[in-house]
Specification:
With about 400 residues, this protein is α/β, with parallel strands linked by helices. The protein is built from 13 helices and 21 strands. The protein has two domains: about 170 residues, Rossmann fold (3-Layer(aba) Sandwich), CATH 3.40.50.1950; about 210 residues, Rossmann fold (3-Layer(aba) Sandwich), CATH 3.40.50. Strands 12-11-8-13-16-17-19-20 form an eight-stranded mixed sheet, sandwiched between helices. A five-stranded parallel sheet has the order 2-1-3-4-5, sandwiched between helices. Strands 6-7 form a two-stranded antiparallel sheet. The longest helix has 15 residues. The structure holds cytidine-5'-triphosphate.
Length: about 400
């Protein structure tokens, strides 16, 4: 089968990090996939890889100097950006990512990146501490919200001698993600998208050994997370206590206990996401006071009263924060007037669609491996599904999300 990158015009941008030594392999693989490649490199990148290597592999001159008098066009960055269908920056240093986030154009590569508006991939490569710095995290979130696809760095041995996150993805993985984005199949819409999922129950502490919880197993949310990551999305899974394990490297898992912890994690990551699916069974109330010791049995027979206060509604808060272009999906668990109540939740919480679970359906809901859902859209369109394994229900939800993205 022909590669989806066949006959595509691709600019490989190379910035100055040690991972630049992998750029020639990326160029070679792109050429093998049938693409036409031109390279643009920063002067620092050319300390790591020679122009001759890149020119020999790509069959084209390397664009590196904005003011080179031998360039065929005086505004080479403009003619190059018109020529190209795709741009991939590999490696992308913290410096080029920072410049792109701020719109700085002070050399050939950054000028090209600023003027290029078609599908763009960046492949970060840097030391773990730079990767975790607040400035880098702000900048990469800006690129994501500008629609740039980030091919995540990997964990491994770094040039500084330590082991950690920050190694550039291997050229084969970069090409894999580029092919997915252009394959035109079920993967295309979700590939490279950052998606938040909440899953499982929350536990609300009464004292040091007791809590109020619910029977949610987390299976539905985990199945959605696995399905989206299989389709190339970068998933952030915020989960309450569960015995489930997530196996995909594309899933970043954040474990929380209470509704308030889930609220903090979800509201922090949502601004950098293109979509969120909130499937957690969040406790609506928590005990007003948590005893720091085990509460002793009382001698009188009147029993005891625990006063509960309301928890934040995570879904409604994300509905308030939602920007244009972000998709927000909620679940509704109803026992009466199901469709009507779910439609009310959809509009009150500013959702794009809602997944309705009915407790009347046998084999659906908490703890089961199967589920039966109804999807309701903003315009009231209602799609009733059959009882299916939760993995198949997750695929239906992923398809619906993909159709909106
Ligand atoms: N939800 C949430 N935060 C809460 C309560 C619910 O994010 N504090 C989310 C759930 O993850 C789900 C949706 O809201 O996606 C609906 O939850 P549900 O319990 O059905 O509805 P509520 O809004 O809590 O309303 P009610 O319990 O009155 O039906």
């Amino acid at each position: 089968m022909a590669s989806p990158l066949k006959d595509k015009h691709i600019i490989v941008g190379i910035s100055g990090g040690i991972a630049a030594y992998k750029a020639p392999l990326l160029v070679r693989l792109l050429i093998k996939a049938g693409a036409d490649v031109r390279c643009a490199a920063t002067p620092h990148a050319l300390q790591f890889v020679t122009p001759l290597t890149l020119e020999t592999l790509s069959g084209n001159p390397v664009y590196t100097d904005l003011f080179d008098r031998t360039n065929p066009h005086s505004t080479e960055h403009i003619s190059l950006k018109d020529w190209a269908d795709i741009m991939v920056v590999a490696p992308a240093t913290a410096n080029i990512i920072g410049k792109a986030a701020c719109g700085i154009a002070d050399d050939a590569l950054s000028t090209l990146l600023l003027s290029f508006r078609k599908t763009t991939f960046v492949c970060p490569a840097m030391n773990s501490q730079m990767l975790e710095s607040p400035a880098y995290r702000r900048n990469i979130a800006t690129l994501r919200s500008d629609g740039i696809i980030v091919v995540e760095s990997q964990c491994g041995q770094l040039a500084c001698g330590t082991v950690g996150d920050g190694r550039m993805a291997e050229p084969e993985q970069i090409i894999g993600q580029m092919q997915l984005a252009f394959s035109g199949d079920e993967h295309a819409a979700l590939s490279g998208k950052r998606i938040l999922i909440t899953a499982g129950p929350t536990y609300e502490k009464i004292d040091s050994v007791r809590f109020i919880g619910n029977f949610s197993s987390g299976k539905m949310g985990f199945a959605i997370a696995e399905e989206l990551s299989r389709r190339g999305a970068e998933v952030i899974l915020v989960t309450g206590p569960t015995h489930l394990a997530s196996s995909s490297p594309n899933i970043r898992r954040i474990d929380v206990l209470s509704a308030r912890e889930m609220y903090s994690a979800a509201t922090e990551v949502f601004p950098s996401c293109q979509a969120a699916i909130l499937s957690a069974a969040v406790a609506d109330f928590r005990p007003e006071h948590v005893a720091d010791h085990k509460i002793k049995k009382q001698n009188d027979t009147d029993g005891m009263t625990i006063r509960l206060v309301q928890n934040p509604d995570i879904l409604a808060s994300l509905g308030n924060m939602k920007r244009d272009g972000q998709i927000l999906v909620g679940f509704a668990l109803e026992t009466d007037n199901e469709i009507e109540n779910a439609k009310k939740k959809l509009s009150k919480k500013n959702l794009d669609f809602i997944v309705l679970n009915s407790l009347h359906d046998k084999g659906a809901g908490f703890g089961h491996d199967t589920n039966k859902i109804t999807i309701i859209d903003r315009d009231g369109t209602t799609t009733i599904g059959d009882l299916k394994p939760k993995t198949a229900v997750a695929a239906d939800i992923a398809n619906h999300l993909a159709s909106l993205l």
